[in-house]
Amino acid sequence: MKDKLIKAALSFAVVCVLGACTKNYLDINSNPYEVDKEQMEAKDYAIASGLSAMFGTVVSTDVNTAQFTDCLLGSTQGGYYADANNGWTNTISKYNPTDNWTNVFMYSDKVIPQLYSNMSNVEGISEDPLVLAILKIVKVCVLNRVTDTYGPIPYSEIGSTGKIQVAYDDQPKVYSQMFDELDEAIALLDENIDRSITSTTDQVFDGTAVKWCRFANSMKLRLAMRVVYTDFVSSKGLSPQQLGEQAVAHSVGVMQSNADNAQLSSLAFGKDGNPLYTACMYNSPAGSVTGGDSHAAADIICYMNGYEDPRREKYFSKAQFSGDNALEYVGMRRGIAIPALSAVGLLYSGVNFVDGMATPLQWMNAAEVAFLKAEAVGVFGWNMGGSAKTFYEQGVRLSFEQWGVAGVDEYLVGTTLPESYTDPNGGATSYSTQLSQLGVAWNDGASKEEMQERIIIQKWIANFHLGNEAWADFRRTGFPHLIPAMESAVGNNSQGIRNLTLGARRMSYPADEATNNPENYAKAVEMLGGSDNMATRMWWDCNPAVK
User: Fold this and answer.
1) Count of alpha carbons within 13 Å of 437, Cβ hemisphere only?
2) How far is CA 192 from the centre of its chain?
3) Helix, strand, or coil (residue 99)
4) Given phi > 0 = left and psi -120 to 50 = alpha, else beta, which region is 326?
5) Which CATH fold topology does 40-270+362-528 show?
6) What is the DSSP string of 224-263?
7) How far is CA 10 from the centre of its chain?
8) Where do the structural domains in the chain lie, given as residue ranges?
9) Could you tell me which residues are beta bridge partners of residue 360?
């Protein structure tokens, strides 16, 4: 009987956790992810199923959800992907999206409800401190992406079902709670640092407490840097600098090697595989070798072409334009009148995934952590246990190693500059402005601004596919300089954006919140301190140099 129940649990987990729905996105409001404890007597399997469902909410394993949150939002605003489906007239990149494009992080049942319901279920059947620590870390990873999209969000008042029609918290309170939960997780892991849980239960770190602890400390450093320009003080009275230094000084510290990288194994995917891969390939025209709905953005290719970056072959598929002067890699500009995909769009470089649909889903990598330390030391004077140059070059080396690319020594002494953008489609969307005056090689005599720009450029390149993180860095620092949307395509947009260089600073709340949760919505907009549109800056977006 027990064997039959375990098999039933396995079947249940595969159907509910791994399946993806790609049509009628928000029409499907049911939550099929709850673990039925009466049916699932195999406790370990119930825990595994619940954790797997929670992991699928960080970068969603549901293709439609990931397309909206990561391909059409984070990776366009972060300069990685460009919308290539010419059937789209209202897009985030043109600052005139429809509500169903901008509400997904908050209204999708594949994110907050799936996270909270499974977290509640696992808490109800497990007292293992390692499992409870993982729950807290995953919750922070998910809600950090949500708050950095909208600003104030429901957090402390959300119940076990994940219903969001409750009171919102302002961002300082959200961040305070996220730091508290990371500290709680780190404390639990400290007490169980030599333990592990069953590897099949954990498709991220194979159940290893040390790696989860390093990830939690790395997240703490990431969040400390996010709020570096604010006057934030944690519930324990700590400044961003103290929080960041505390994370690095911890006994197991932060991510140090690519073996520490946080990524979701392909074992957690369903039949559609890596959701970003599948979303980029949607609507590929017949004969296309570059993909469909999303192609590589001109921004990142211009930088990498100029730097003669050998990671290009890992990041992008080759462009298909013909002619003696045709470049191997050519991106599509974001925020334009999208050309016909079947005739012109398919000629631009596509987004490459090294293992196709089986490519693991990145959450955070060791290279990013090295760049966080480089910025912390070089720009803000934090004690990270080394020099800015050491951490900067370590970040580049870790990224080359992660992608299996040679030539890092030559790259690190490079002085060439990013190229300007020439659109091979008759120059229709060309952009002649030089994106940066900086090469790769470190400059010990650089100003703090130059140091920050150089670090963020290389961090941005190393974080390819992590679009929401790139967008957050762009808003926080103003780097890297990106190619703005075209005025002719944006026109009199509906989201209040008049400065195309600054671009989108947030997403507007789901339209139904004003009707379904009016009192709390009104308070959220008041806490936001501006109009509920894409031009209003959130709390941590306060760098005086970004204007």
Assistant:
1) 4
2) 29
3) helix
4) beta
5) 1.25.40
6) HHHTTTS----TTS--HHHHHHHHHHSSS-S--SGGG-EE
7) 29
8) 40-270+362-528
9) none
Find out whether 275 and 67 touch, Cβ atoms under 8 Å: yes
φ and ψ of 311, to 5 deg? -75, -10
CA distance 307 to 433: 17
Contact by Cβ (8 Å): 90, 98? yes
What letter represents residue 524's amino acid?
A
pLDDT tens-digit map of 106-140: 999 999 999 999 999 999 999 999 999 999 999 99
Q: What percent of the chain is helix, strand and coil (3-state, nearest 5)?
A: 45, 5, 50
Q: Which residues contact 323 (CB under 8 A, 6 or more apart)?
A: 424
Side-chain-facing half-sphere of 19: CA atoms under 13 Å: 11
Question: In angstroms, rounded to a whole number, what is the distance separating the alpha carbons of residues 64 and 46?
Answer: 26
- The CA distance from 190 to 218, in Å, is 15
User: Could you report the per-residue pLDDT of 135-194, keeping only the tens digit for each?
Assistant: 999 999 999 999 999 999 999 999 888 889 999 999 999 999 999 999 999 999 999 999
Which candidate, 100, 125, 225, 218, places its Cα nearest to that of 175? 225
d(CA 35, CA 117): 9
In eight-state DSSP terms, residue 423 is -
Q: For residue 83, give the H/E element and its range.
A: strand 81-83
- Whole-prediction pTM: 0.93
CA distances from 182 to 73, 79, 82 (A): 26, 29, 34
Q: Which residue do the tokens 């690519």 mark?
A: 258
Q: Which residues contact 97 (CB under 8 A, 6 or more apart)?
A: 90, 91, 495
CB 285 within 8 A of CB 346: yes
